C-alpha cells in the first residue's frame, strides 16, 4: 500500500524538528509551505488540518483510507521513529528508554520553558519572561554532561534526543556561554554537519508549493 507524507510548515524550530526527523528517518515527504506572515495558518484550508492554527502538520495519505493527520512536532518525530525503528530510537529497551528520557528533557525542560518565555515577550510580565528564559538556558547548559563522554545526547547513536536538542540549541546559540561548554559545542557542530539535518533546515525554503486544496482534485482530473 503506497503511503505519501506531506509536511505543512514554515521556517520555525518546531517545523525544522519535524522535517529533520523525517529526513533522518529516511522517509520521503513533500514539504508544503504555510506562510505565517500572511496568516495562511489561520485560513480555512489549514484550519481543516489543524483547528489550532499551528504548524507543523503531517498529513499521511494511503489509498482507500482517510488521510491521517498529526499535529505536534514531537508526535511527528515519534511517528517517524516508529516507522523506521532504530534510526531515531535505539532497538535495545534500556537504550531506547534513555533516548526517550533525554528527548523529554529537551522537550519539556528546555523547549517548553523557552516557548513560555517567548510567549511573554510582548506582555508586561518582563520579569517573569526573564526568569523563564534564564531557566531554559541554564537547563540547556547542563546538557554538556550528556555529551562529555558520548558522541550523541543519548549515547553512541544519533536519536530523537539529538533532534530535540539541536533545534533549541540553534535558537539559543547566541546566549550560550560556549567557552564553558566545549563538548556541547563539538556535539552541535557534529549535528549541524549531518546531511539530513541540513536538508531538514532547508525543507521550507526550497519548495514553492503552497497549500492549495484544489490541487489534488485538478491533478486527479488531469490523470
Ligand atoms: N507544541 C506545538 C507548537 C506548535 C506551534 O506553536 N507552532 C508555531 C510555529 S513554531 C505556530 O504555528 N505559530 C503560529 C501561531 O501561533 O499563530 C508543536 O510542537 O508542534
Automatic annotation (TrEMBL):
Gene3D superfamilies in the cross-refs: 1.20.1050.10, Glutaredoxin (3.40.30.10)
UniProt xrefs under PROSITE patterns: GST_CTER, GST_NTER
Domain GST C-terminal span(s) in chain numbering: 92-211
Domain GST N-terminal, residue spans: 2-88
InterPro entries for the chain: Glutathione-S-Trfase_C-like, Glutathione-S-Trfase_C_sf, Glutathione_S-Trfase, Glutathione_S-Trfase_N, GST_C, Thioredoxin-like_sf
Pfam families named in the record: GST_C (PF00043), GST_N (PF02798)
PANTHER family cross-referenced by the UniProt entry: GLUTATHIONE S-TRANSFERASE-RELATED (PTHR44051), HYPOTHETICAL GLUTATHIONE S-TRANSFERASE LIKE PROTEIN (PTHR44051:SF2)
Annotated family: Belongs to the GST superfamily.
Protein's name according to its UniProt entry: Glutathione S-transferase family protein
Species name: Lichenifustis flavocetrariae
Amino acid at each position: 500500500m503506497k503511503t505519501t507524507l506531506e509536511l505543512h510548515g514554515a521556517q520555525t524550530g518546531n517545523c525544522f524538528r519535524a522535517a529533520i526527523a523525517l529526513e533522518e528517518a529516511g522517509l520521503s515527504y513533500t514539504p508544503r509551505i504555510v506562510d505565517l506572515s500572511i496568516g495562511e495558518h489561520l485560513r480555512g484550508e489549514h484550519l481543516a488540518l489543524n483547528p489550532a492554527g499551528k504548524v507543523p502538520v503531517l498529513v499521511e495519505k494511503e489509498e482507500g483510507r482517510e488521510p491521517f493527520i498529526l499535529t505536534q512536532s514531537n508526535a511527528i518525530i515519534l511517528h517517524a521513529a516508529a516507522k523506521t525503528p532504530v534510526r531515531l530510537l535505539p532497538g535495545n529497551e534500556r537504550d531506547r528508554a534513555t533516548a526517550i528520557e533525554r528527548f523529554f528533557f529537551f522537550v519539556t525542560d528546555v523547549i517548553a520553558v523557552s516557548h513560555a518565555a517567548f510567549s511573554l515577550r510582548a506582555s508586561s510580565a518582563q520579569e517573569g519572561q526573564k526568569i523563564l528564559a534564564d531557566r531554559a538556558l541554564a537547563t540547556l547548559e547542563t546538557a554538556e554532561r550528556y555529551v562529555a563522554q558520548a558522541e550523541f545526547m543519548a549515547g553512541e547513536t544519533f536519536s530523537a534526543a539529538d533532534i530535540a536538542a539541536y533545534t533549541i540549541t540553534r535558537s539559543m546559540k547566541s546566549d550560550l556561554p560556549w567557552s564553558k561548554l566545549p563538548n556541547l559545542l563539538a556535539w552541535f557542530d557534529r549535528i549541524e554537519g549531518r546531511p539530513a539535518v541540513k536538508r531538514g533546515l532547508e525543507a521550507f525554503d526550497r519548495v514553492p508549493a503552497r497549500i492549495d486544496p484544489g490541487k489534488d482534485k485538478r491533478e486527479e482530473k488531469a490523470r
